[in-house]
Specification:
The protein has 19 helices and six strands. By secondary structure, it is mostly helical.
């Protein structure tokens, strides 16, 4: 037999249809206030704007409007001062705020606020208002991170290191080039956030009612302007059921998480004793409970781990949505928990990454010592190309030189000119210029390359994105 909660039907927004209270476990199962109370400010903002629209439509007198706005302002102060008293009947933030408003100004006037409005359009509007503000916060975090990457790239321009493919040494690059590779990814993320994701969020759904629309001639365009939205939803069915804007945000979080994970993975490798290219600050490291010598890059490992969690949140949310009929279904209550946690997680990840890079110690000597002349085998082929040889032929000749060095057990630059000329007569005295790592990186002058000029251009591009 179900355990009945106290009869609170009359205290709920939907109580009139019901003759007995809800099962106590169902009461708890249905309640979302512990999650969506984060929306208290957005909910009050939306209600204030909606009250003005009701007044403009002739559904509230000037006196009633003033009472409602004053009451909502008091509710705002209570939340802000952390004195708002939550009651058992408050199943969500909308119920809580409206219940408290009616306590303050009376239900006769307070009960008019919800005229023509449903929690279906109210909830999506609240989330959009909250998310627009959150996007601004995340934008600032991402810009701070980009500033650190760019400043470090400018400062450490002369540091050379191996570039890797398949986690094997490939060609010499500048450390700044590596930094800017990640800066370019994160600047793209910044553009997507402020353009694509924000546009998806910046649509007002208030005035759509439960699903069929608003029957009271509410001026939705003026309402959108009051709330600071750039557009008004076109279809009320879509407005109350679509959670694409949340999916867009979750995808963005997952993609940023993936970029941060790859950034973290490189630094984890570079910080090992086997590489020793970088050293993490103690502020972003932990130790071992049994091995005193250990200094673990837990900040980076947690970034790497949490990126998988973000992908899981996106996937789980899409699975929730995929089988839902039109329009609103209670399954959608799960949207806020996953959204709030994803935004909080990725914000923390960005700030931790900013701290890591700003306090990172770089060892240019260790980077330089990791360079080897076999990494200039491609440069050897380029040398022959500049002498007129087709690249495929030059590639084969360079391979023979590498084979020669392996057979002799010597470095590439230790093969004599005479021996080189036995492989190809195009080798001349100027071959010695090839064995210079700085000459190697400076040849990549085309846009995107690892020369100083190219990296400076990359920095300028990212700065423009940051400042746009």
């Amino acid at each position: 037999m179900a355990n009945q909660a106290p009869d609170q039907a009359s205290m709920k927004l939907w109580g009139g249809r019901f003759s007995q209270g809800m099962d106590t476990l169902m009461e708890k199962f249905n309640n979302s206030l512990k999650i969506d109370q984060k929306l208290w400010k957005a909910d009050l903002k939306g209600s204030m704007a909606y009250a003005k629209s009701l007044n403009q439509a002739g559904l509230l007198t000037k006196s009633e409007l003033e009472m409602i706005l004053s009451g909502l302002d008091k509710v705002h102060r209570e939340w802000n001062d952390q004195t708002f008293a939550i009651k058992a009947s408050d199943e969500d933030i909308h119920t809580a705020n409206e219940r408290r408003l009616s306590e303050i100004i009376g239900s006769e006037v307070g009960g008019k606020l919800h005229t023509g409005r449903s929690r279906n359009d109210q909830s999506t509007t609240d989330v959009r208002l909250w998310l627009k503000e959150e996007i601004g916060v995340m934008k600032s975090f991402l810009i701070d991170f980009l500033k650190e990457l760019v400043q470090r790239a400018e400062k450490d321009m002369e540091f050379l290191m191996p570039g890797y493919t398949h986690l094997q040494r490939a060609q010499p690059i500048r450390w700044s080039h590596w930094l800017m590779s990640h800066a370019c990814d994160f600047s793209t993320d910044l553009t997507k956030l402020t353009n694509d994701v924000f546009r998806s969020v910046d649509i007002m759904t208030l005035g759509s009612g439960a699903l069929a629309g608003n029957p009271f001639a509410i001026n939705r365009e003026l309402l959108a302007k009051e709330l600071g939205f750039g557009a008004v939803s076109t279809n009320s069915l879509s407005a109350t059921s679509s959670r694409d804007f949340i999916a867009d945000m979750l995808f963005w979080c997952a993609q940023v998480g993936m970029h941060l994970s790859r950034f973290a993975e490189d630094l984890i490798i570079y910080s090992t004793k086997e590489f020793s290219f970088v050293r993490l600050s103690d502020a972003y490291s932990t130790g071992s409970s049994i091995m005193p010598q250990k200094k673990n890059p837990d900040s980076l490992e947690l970034i790497r781990g949490k990126s998988g969690t973000l992908i899981g949140k996106l996937t789980g949310f899409l699975v929730t949505l995929k089988g839902l009929p039109s329009t609103y279904n209670k399954d959608m209550q799960e949207d806020k928990e996953v959204l709030f946690s994803a935004c909080e997680t990725v914000s923390d990840m960005i700030r931790i990454a900013t701290g890591v890079i700003s306090t990172l110690t770089v060892d240019p000597v260790a980077m330089s010592q990791a360079l080897s002349f076999d990494m200039l085998a491609t440069d050897l082929a380029y040398y022959l190309v500049r002498k007129g040889m087709p690249f495929r032929a030059a590639h084969e000749i360079s391979g023979k030189v590498v084979s020669k060095s392996e057979t002799k057990g010597c470095k590439l630059n230790e093969i004599s000119l005479h021996e080189l000329q036995e492989i190809s007569p195009l080798f001349e005295e100027d071959i010695m210029k090839v064995w210079d790592y700085y000459n190697s990186v400076e040849q990549y002058q085309a846009t995107g390359g690892t020369s100083v000029t190219s990296i400076v251009h990359q920095i300028d591009v990212v700065k423009k994105i940051m400042n746009s």
